[in-house]
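Recall the central idea of this unit: under ordinary conditions, the amino acid sequence of a chain determines the structure it adopts. In this exercise we apply that idea directly, starting from the sequence alone.
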Amino acid sequence: MGALNQTRVPEFVFLGLTDNWVLEILFFVAFSITYALTLLGNTLIIVTIFFTPRLHTPMYFFLSNLSLIDICHSSVTVPKMLEGLLLERKTISFDNCIAQLFFLHLFACAEIFLLTIMAYDRYVAICTPLHYPNVMNMRVCVQLVFALWLGGTVHSLVQTFLTIRLPYCGPNIIDSYFCDVPPVIKLACTDTYLTGMLIVSNSGTISLTCFLALVTSYTVILVSLRKQSAEGRRKALSTCSAHFMVVALFFGPCIFLYTRPDTSFSIDKMVSVFYTVVTPLLNPLIYTLRNEEVKSAMKQLRQRQVFS
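Accordingly, the structure predicted from this sequence is:
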């Protein structure tokens, strides 16, 4: 163990998104605005739901948790990326790299589980509405949220352990703008084929299993909607379509990045930017622009603050 610590690289160097300083400035401005809007939009959803009693339902409880996860998820990578866009040499210490990797997988896995739970919530609400108050009471919702954080922590610990157990004696250049398992283990001073397959199996199993569960839930929902009234179908489709858009935007990049052995696809960086920067901003936009209840609650909250 002592020999490993002596030969371990002290830091990693990011290649970043580009070496063109003009593009770096443009990216810095664009991503700074995107990150600020992400924090503002998701915080606004959390505050609106918290201060609006009629939104204290399972669906909006899960939505507020989704906004919290999006804030955390984007905050793991975006601030470091923005710093790197202003620096010629973009570095991160070994320990900070491992910490970034851990929290990236924690929040990503928590979001995957939460989106799956939200699909189950919609399935119960639409397909068995009479049993909904008993099946999805607040105690069950809290237990499900605790379970998703526990599952995310276990997954992230496994990914981190598989990464940190490898020897890193150089090179130390990561062709990315943040620390993730695939680009980091490429730098290990040993054969990583078996570790890579274990990592892909772990992440891929979670992503694909949850995605199949989501598809199954929505298939059953769509079939059951034939028995609903026209107004019931419209309301259910509005809610489910917003959720399915978020699922597609999040699961698409996840499945692309984590269900195949690591390769040198140049499109990986573009997919990573969408997954870590853009998606957390789109979630609040999708849910607020398509949800009259949330928009109405935001308007009332703003008026209450003005008059007070």
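The two ends are 62 Å apart (CA to CA).
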